[in-house]
């Protein structure tokens, strides 16, 4: 079996930022622990000089990580990746803040990754590059003479060509990505949008559902929805429900229904809209019938849009509590801190409703985690944005449009009042769609398709 080399900006280096919230690290960690290989990317540190990679080993996984300089972090990570590509890819162009030098830095950091990775590669390695931070990497690796089978997976959505065009520099990035052999997406619509953009911007020709041609070379396109370890998460949730953090939370509820939100504090997650829906519901129901707990882990705090969002969410939460609170009761608890994944699992098990209402989201693993965490005898209800990739799989959830506050309020009320038989029926259908899947299965599907010449291995 050939070695797998995973490349991602965010690497959960064992001694460092392992508790960091984010779907990419969660999806890849299980795969790498099981399969072994080399994981290459950013160390998470910002330092003075540009040094060689640092190496460490944990079990079968070797880590090779680079620090970023202050200027690289500002231009590559904060500036172009999260200030331009992230909002464009999620169709939020008004949040873009472009500076030409950030695009130059983005390209330079992608080249530095390629320059440092190339000497570490073995002849029969398969290379798997992840996410929007590294769209130039496949092109940069080819520029270094690397000929290994190379795949690229986009964890986030890809919009239609007109919406993609708003990001300066995107044409070159699409060309660079097309240097890979296999491109993976969360949904069929992300794949199709990318293919249209690649035709329009880079002259690639779509020769089938799952392939394109560019410069006489074939590039394959596949759909690989990211998965969680559902059975493992279910067991964690069940055992955590009996432990301290969940027990204290349960006791504090005094019989009220728990409405839960778990997100990174990110403009794509629809938090102000969600709080508005909750405000409407709480205004109509008796005091002390339901309490909302929103866990919002601070994220990308160097990006202005994220700092503004923090203020907006704090202020909306404050106004809900000042308007509807009682001397001995507050309807909303907002924690702007990450919790461990185990603690979150226990909280999910207690919740009657989970609000997963992003404006747009590649997949959204929280939605799948909530389903996995439920007690099959008395499950809670998932209220899910139709603009999350997960909605394609979890169609038995209450699907909502996050721009429609009243529609979301109705769905939340309906969830709070839903009889047990309907909750069980909806939950069962959702559970069946995730129970057999795993991050390892997801990874193996992609890697099998990346095996040279194996077109048949692409899932339909
Ligand atoms: P994203 O990748 O955009 O953050 P996902 O929902 O796909 O969104 O993945 C987020 C992952 O991080 C999940 O495994 C989730 O449990 C975890 N997570 C998200 N927010 C928090 C939080 N506030 N505290 C702890 N874990 C979190
Ligand atoms: C999303 C992105 C990942 C990213 C994660 C956390 O899941 O798709 O690429 O790692 O968010 O964001 P961060 O900026 O902290 O890495």
TrEMBL record:
Protein name (database record): Trehalose 6-phosphate synthase
A GO molecular-function descriptor: alpha,alpha-trehalose-phosphate synthase (UDP-forming) activity
Pfam families, alphabetized: Glyco_transf_20 (PF00982)
Coiled coil: none
Protein family membership: Belongs to the glycosyltransferase 20 family.
One BP term from GO: trehalose biosynthetic process
């Amino acid at each position: 079996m050939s070695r797998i080399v995973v490349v991602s900006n965010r690497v959960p280096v064992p001694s460092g930022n392992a508790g960091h919230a984010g779907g990419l690290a969660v999806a890849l960690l299980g795969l790498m622990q099981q399969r072994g290989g080399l994981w290459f990317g950013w160390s998470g540190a910002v330092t003075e000089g540009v040094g060689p990679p640092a190496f460490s080993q944990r079990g079968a996984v070797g880590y090779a990580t680079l620090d970023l300089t202050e200027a690289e972090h500002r231009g590559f990570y904060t500036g172009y990746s999260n200030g331009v590509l992230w909002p464009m890819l999620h169709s939020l162009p008004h949040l873009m803040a472009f500076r030409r030098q950030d695009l130059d830095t983005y390209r330079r950091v992608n080249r530095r990754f390629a320059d440092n990775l190339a000497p570490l590669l073995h002849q029969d390695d398969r290379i798997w590059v992840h996410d929007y931070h590294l769209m130039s990497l496949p092109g940069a690796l080819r520029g270094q003479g690397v000929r290994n089978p190379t795949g690229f997976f986009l964890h986030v959505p890809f919009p239609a060509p007109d919406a993609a065009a708003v990001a300066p520099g995107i044409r070159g990035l699409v060309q660079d990505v097309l240097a890979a052999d296999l491109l993976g997406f969360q949904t069929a619509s992300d794949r199709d949008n990318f293919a249209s953009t690649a035709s329009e911007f880079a002259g690639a020709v779509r020769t089938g559902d799952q392939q394109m041609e560019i410069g006489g070379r074939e590039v394959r396109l596949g759909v690989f929805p990211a998965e969680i370890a559902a059975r493992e998460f279910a067991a964690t949730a069940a055992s955590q429900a009996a432990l301290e953090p969940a027990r204290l939370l349960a006791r504090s509820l005094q019989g009220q229904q728990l409405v839960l939100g778990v997100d990174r504090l990110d403009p794509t997650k629809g938090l102000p809209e969600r709080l508005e829906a909750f405000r409407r519901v709480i205004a109509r129901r008796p005091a002390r019938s339901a309490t909302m707990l929103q866990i919002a882990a601070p994220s990308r705090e160097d990006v202005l849009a994220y700092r503004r969002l923090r203020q907006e969410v704090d202020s909306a939460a404050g106004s809900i509590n000042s308007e509807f609170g009682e001397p001995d009761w507050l309807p909303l608890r907002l924690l702007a801190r990450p919790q461990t994944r185990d603690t979150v699992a226990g909280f999910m098990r207690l919740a009657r409703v989970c609000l997963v209402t992003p404006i747009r989201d590649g997949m959204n693993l929280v939605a799948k985690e909530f389903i996995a965490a439920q007690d099959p005898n008395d499950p809670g209800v998932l209220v899910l944005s139709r603009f999350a990739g997960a909605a394609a799989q979890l169609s038995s959830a209450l699907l909502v449009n996050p721009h429609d506050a009243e529609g979301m309020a109705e769905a939340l009320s309906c969830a709070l009042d839903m009889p047990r038989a309907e909750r069980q029926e909806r939950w069962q259908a959702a559970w069946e769609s995730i129970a057999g899947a795993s991050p390892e299965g997801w990874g193996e599907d992609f890697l099998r398709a990346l095996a040279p010449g194996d077109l048949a291995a692409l899932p339909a």
